[in-house]
């Protein structure tokens, strides 16, 4: 009973006690038995740790199956004890990470004033960002009209959000929007098709000196055991099909992707996080090699 109660608090996370199962991630070539036979993968199986699959510019990164899955969870998005509980618990760390990036920016004039939240879901981060005194405007987009309906209804509970928060039912490929201080993409990149084009498109909305901020999951045995085997198959605390382990992207793969574009991108910051039962989400140095992590990269031009 005790173990079951603990796991009900987890959801889409990597649990600290399971870190002992794996002390090293998969080799840089990305190969694993779970990837065999797949015609399309988020990461190619070359020997380069920096290769992320691409697609034609006219295509969309939106996966309709993923959209349908998360739309089915819309009604419970704002339930702090429901399936989205891990997102509610992680939200303070999102702000902590962004704050650390602002402090690290050379010549920073202060905290960010403009945000673009991509794949905003029910608006957990978007609402909290819009409430910050320094925020002038937060635009949040999601391709699911069902989820955005929930987000808009919840935002109406706080009239002060009106002029600062805007929700748009669109994909990043179809968006027309000015550049902002911070583009955020939390728990999204592991759910899109062909992340290379998706990352390129995200970068188009970051002003020079601004940050692209993401959170995702490393592709390791630890993350497979916790997010796929335990959470989905054994305890069933996360709806079946929430995660495709083959789409998980390792920290070194993301880092290498941006390092190959030095004319656009500069400093990289990473923060590994784990969920400790009874304590919540905690930063643990080096845990980005095992499971959940935040990733920030600064736009230079």
Automatic annotation (TrEMBL):
Q: Which InterPro entries match?
A: SAM-dependent_MTases_sf, UbiG_MeTrfase
The signal peptide annotation in the UniProt record is 1-30
What's the chief localization of this chain? mitochondrion
The keyword Methyltransferase is annotated on this UniProt entry: yes
The protein's Enzyme Commission number: 2.1.1.64, 2.1.1.-, 2.1.1.114
Q: Which reaction does it catalyse?
A: a 3-demethylubiquinol + S-adenosyl-L-methionine = a ubiquinol + S-adenosyl-L-homocysteine + H(+); a 3-demethylubiquinone + S-adenosyl-L-methionine = a ubiquinone + S-adenosyl-L-homocysteine; a 3,4-dihydroxy-5-(all-trans-polyprenyl)benzoate + S-adenosyl-L-methionine = a 4-hydroxy-3-methoxy-5-(all-trans-polyprenyl)benzoate + S-adenosyl-L-homocysteine + H(+)
Q: Which residues bind S-adenosyl-L-methionine?
A: 94, 119, 142, 186
- GO function terms (MF aspect): 3-demethylubiquinol 3-O-methyltransferase activity; metal ion binding; polyprenyldihydroxybenzoate methyltransferase activity
The segments labelled Disordered in the record are 29-63
Comp. bias (Low complexity): 43-54
Query: Which HAMAP family does the UniProt record give?
Result: UbiG
- What is the protein's quaternary organization? Component of a multi-subunit COQ enzyme complex, composed of at least COQ3, COQ4, COQ5, COQ6, COQ7 and COQ9.
Which NCBIfam families does the protein's record reference? Answer: UbiG
What family does the Swiss-Prot or TrEMBL record give for this protein?
A: Belongs to the class I-like SAM-binding methyltransferase superfamily. UbiG/COQ3 family.
Q: What is this protein called?
A: Ubiquinone biosynthesis O-methyltransferase, mitochondrial
- Supply the source organism for this entry: Cladorrhinum samala
């Amino acid at each position: 009973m005790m173990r079951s109660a603990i796991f009900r608090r987890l959801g889409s996370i990597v649990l600290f006690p399971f870190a002992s199962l794996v002390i090293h991630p998969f080799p840089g070539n990305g190969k694993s038995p779970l990837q065999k036979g797949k015609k399309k993968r988020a990461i190619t199986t070359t020997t380069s740790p920096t290769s992320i699959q691409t697609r034609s510019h006219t295509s969309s990164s939106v996966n309709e199956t993923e959209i349908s899955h998360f739309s089915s969870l819309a009604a419970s998005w704002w339930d702090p004890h429901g399936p989205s509980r891990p997102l509610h618990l992680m939200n303070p760390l999102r702000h902590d990470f962004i704050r650390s990036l602002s402090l690290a920016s050379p010549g920073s004039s202060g905290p960010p004033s403009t945000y673009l939240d991509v794949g905003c879901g029910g608006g957990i981060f978007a609402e909290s960002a819009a409430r910050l005194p320094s925020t002038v405007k937060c635009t949040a987009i999601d391709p699911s009209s069902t989820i955005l309906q929930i987000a808009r209804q919840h935002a109406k509970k706080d009239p002060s959000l009106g002029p600062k928060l805007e929700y748009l039912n669109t994909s990043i490929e179809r968006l027309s929007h000015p550049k902002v201080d911070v583009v955020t993409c939390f728990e999204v990149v592991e759910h899109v098709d062909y992340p290379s084009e998706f990352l390129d498109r995200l970068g188009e909305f970051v002003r020079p000196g601004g940050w692209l901020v993401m959170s995702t999951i490393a592709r390791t045995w630890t993350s497979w055991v916790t997010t796929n085997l335990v959470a989905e198959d054994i305890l069933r605390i996360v709806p079946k099909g929430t995660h495709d382990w083959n789409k998980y992207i390792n920290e070194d793969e993301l880092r290498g992707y941006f390092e190959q574009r030095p004319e656009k991108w500069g400093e990289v910051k990473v923060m590994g996080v784990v969920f400790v039962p009874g304590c919540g989400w905690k930063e643990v140095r080096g845990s980005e090699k095992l499971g959940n992590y935040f990733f920030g990269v600064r736009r230079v031009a």
